[in-house]
Design a protein that fits this description.
The complex is a heterodimer of chains A (260) and B (356). In chain A, strands 1-2 form a two-stranded antiparallel ribbon. Chain A is built from ten helices and four strands. Chain A is mainly α. With 356 residues, chain B is mainly β. In chain B, the strands form eight sheets. In chain B, strands 1-2-3-4 form a four-stranded antiparallel sheet, with no helix packed on it. A four-stranded antiparallel sheet of chain B has the order 5-6-7-8, with no helix packed on it. A four-stranded antiparallel sheet of chain B has the order 9-10-11-12, with no helix packed on it. The chains are: A mainly alpha (260), B mainly beta (356). The A-B interface holds A 58, 92-93, 95-96, 99-100, 103, 106-107, 110-111, 114-115, 119-125, 128, 138-139, 141-142, 153-154, 193-194, 197, 200-201, 204-205, 208, 211-212, 215-217, 220 and B 1-5, 7-9, 11-12, 14-16, 18-20, 22-23, 25-26, 28-31, 115, 117, 132, 153-154, 156, 171, 192-194, 196, 212-213, 237, 239, 254, 278, 280, 318, 333.
């Protein structure tokens, strides 16, 4: 089912794009990422709005009041929070949905990259059997896996003085950090629980993504970097980028939304 | 909010696990290769190369001592003519010379930057090892580099030699003819698609080459000139090396169709035969019989000109069978028994299941 619905169509679409962009697999991954971002844009826009609504709710007096009132009764606090969510029409997991959609896409893309590159005779045999019967598609094989300095089917390293520098993994960590950091509205109360969670996520996500980039085919890292940059563009279009979050806290107006 | 973070972390951890699982695709490898001498079979079957006693089907030794799951072995091992060295090549980019008696290492050749899929060719007192790093390496029996030649893409098939020249195809759609002693290019021809199979030499200096696109070409091995007005076009892709025998050229495609061609014209000279399952490797010859392994786990025997028999064996048989006397050795893909010995009548002699 997974193969039929995700991996095989992804692989064929990647190959079609590869053919259209002059048989450059790196460019094909980038174009594929742009397409995915365009298709999931309505969901992303919904997520951004949902996150904003959640932030506003958590900064409201009503929310603060129930936090204080039921601080010793977690069960009642939970019930009251759910009541508030319902009243305001907010889904607490609404902001997670696009992220969850990204995960199967990442997995599917990774498998598709490996499948399309077909690094061994057995993998090539499998690939030839899942190709759509479109003219010219089978003639593209084998795919050229070189893109800039990378072999897209292998983890990337740049060797300087015999030491392998994982340049893409660093770029993945950096773009994920920036993306996580500047898309969260500035907090008014640094002790706010949600602010603390956001801070830990902003550190955790780049590390996790960098680990993926470090360990797996560099085609995946290209996808993550382009996806992060496009995400920033999407947030910027909707006026939800807070560049001031990247600056040190000292001397920064804490509650300003001026950079929207 | 806390729940959301936990859910997110759970999904990320899950994705990491899934990707790790998929990473095995990178080294999932390919089908095993088997060769043999009078006493033993040698099978490169993933983590180990096994030497197996032909009489008992018992393991004699395995190489390396510890399982090499990240860097398996699949290229068919090759013996030097004096039987003193067994040449094996792995995904770890290393070509080894082993002592066939006990599997100890004589020497290592580690100039390749990528995996070896093709069996080494031993001819003209040199070892020719085709690598996925685009290079064909000529190595002396002492493990020294004699010369190397670079194609434009990976080489997955074994070259053939006529004593003076080497011929091989690469994924770059090109067939190359090299001076066997010096490694210099004599001629090359570009075909319609990637070349996955070894070429075949004819009786009078012809060279037959099959492409993945299902075309079969004939060239003059001396000059590289095309000999047929147009290439023969099979119905399916051709992964198996063409086979020249008794004035006929046999070609098998991935649909399991076997074509008999007139080597002079490239036209079909007798009706097509159907093996019933995918064929991706060249047949093994026994007198007037060609033995093909099929993906369906069968051995398809074609006794010239057109008598056929099929024996069910086991697993998926992608590689070329080995033959010692009247014993056929097959190495099924991803099977519990990486080596099975059957008679030419299809009776099983033994199956080798390694101890874990």
């Amino acid at each position: 089912m997974w193969e039929t619905l995700i991996v095989n169509p992804f692989t064929n679409v990647l190959l079609l794009i590869y053919n259209l962009v002059g048989q450059n697999f790196g460019v094909a991954i980038i174009v594929f990422t742009v397409l995915i971002r365009l298709i999931t844009h309505p969901l992303t826009a919904k997520q951004i709005k949902s996150t904003q609504a959640m932030q506003e709710l958590q900064q409201s007096k009503e929310w603060q009041a129930i936090q204080k009132k039921y601080k010793d009764d977690k069960e009642k606090l939970g019930q009251e929070q759910i009541r508030l969510y319902k009243e305001k029409g907010i889904s607490p997991f609404g902001s997670c949905l696009p992220t969850f959609i990204q995960l199967p896409i990442m997995l599917g893309l990774y498998q598709s990259v490996i499948r399309a590159l077909a690094a061994s005779p057995m993998q090539l045999l499998v690939l030839t059997r899942i190709l759509w019967p479109l003219p010219g598609l089978s003639e593209l094989i084998p795919i050229n896996s070189q893109f800039l300095w990378m072999n897209l089917g292998q983890p990337e390293r740049i060797y300087i003085g015999g030491i392998g520098i994982p340049f893409l993994a660093i770029l993945v960590a950096l773009t994920t950090y920036i993306q996580s950091k500047v898309t969260i509205p500035p907090v008014t109360d640094p002790n706010d629980q949600s602010a603390q969670m956001n801070r830990s996520m902003a550190l955790m996500m780049p590390l996790m993504m960098a680990y993926f980039a470090l360990s797996f085919a560099s085609g995946l890292a290209v996808y993550i970097i382009v996806s992060n940059l496009l995400s920033l563009v999407q947030y910027a279009i909707l006026g939800k980028v807070y560049w001031s979050n990247l600056l040190p806290k000292r001397g920064r107006p804490g509650s300003s939304k001026s950079e929207k | 909010m806390k729940t959301k973070v936990y859910v997110m972390l759970f999904f990320l951890a899950g994705l990491g696990l899934l990707l790790s699982g998929c990473a095995s695709d990178l080294v999932a490898g390919t089908w095993p290769g088997v060769s043999a001498d009078e006493a033993r079979a040698y099978v490169a079957a993933g983590s180990f190369v096994y030497a197996v006693d032909l009489q008992t089907g018992q393991e004699v030794w395995r190489f390396p001592e510890k399982a090499s799951t990240a860097n398996p072995f699949y290229a068919t091992p090759a013996l030097t003519p004096d039987g003193e060295q067994l040449i094996v090549a792995g995904f770890n980019h290393i070509l080894y010379s082993l002592d066939p008696v006990d599997g100890t290492i004589n020497w290592e050749f580690n100039r390749s930057h990528d995996r070896y899929y093709a069996a080494p060719l031993i001819a003209d007192e040199l070892i020719y090892a085709a690598s996925a790093d685009y290079n064909l390496y000529a190595v002396t029996f002492d493990g020294d580099l004699a010369w190397q030649f670079s194609a434009s893409q990976a080489i997955w098939s074994t070259p053939v030699s006529d004593g003076a020249r080497l011929y091989f195809g690469a994924l770059d759609r090109t067939v190359y003819a090299l001076d066997a002693r010096r490694g210099s290019l004599v001629w090359k021809q570009t075909l319609d698609s990637a070349i996955l199979a070894s070429p075949a030499l004819g009786a009078e200096g012809q060279l037959y080459v099959a492409s993945m696109g299902g075309r079969v070409y004939a060239f003059d091995s001396e000059s590289g000139a095309a000999l047929w007005p147009q290439p023969f076009q099979a119905e399916g892709q051709v992964w198996a090396a063409p086979f020249f025998l008794e004035g006929r050229l046999y070609v098998a495609d991935v649909d399991g169709v076997i074509y008999t061609l007139d080597p002079a014209t490239g036209r079909e000279s007798q009706p097509r035969l159907h093996a019933g399952g995918t064929i991706v490797s060249a047949p093994r010859r026994f007198e007037q019989t060609l033995i093909f392994g099929t993906e369906d786990g069968a051995l398809f025997l074609l006794t010239l000109p057109d008598e056929v028999q099929t024996f069910e064996v086991d697993g998926r048989l992608y590689g070329t069978p080995a033959l010692v006397g009247e014993t056929v050795l097959v190495a099924p893909y991803q099977a519990d028994s990486p080596l099975i010995a059957v008679t030419l009548q299809g009776a099983r002699r033994w199956s080798f299941t390694p101890e874990r």
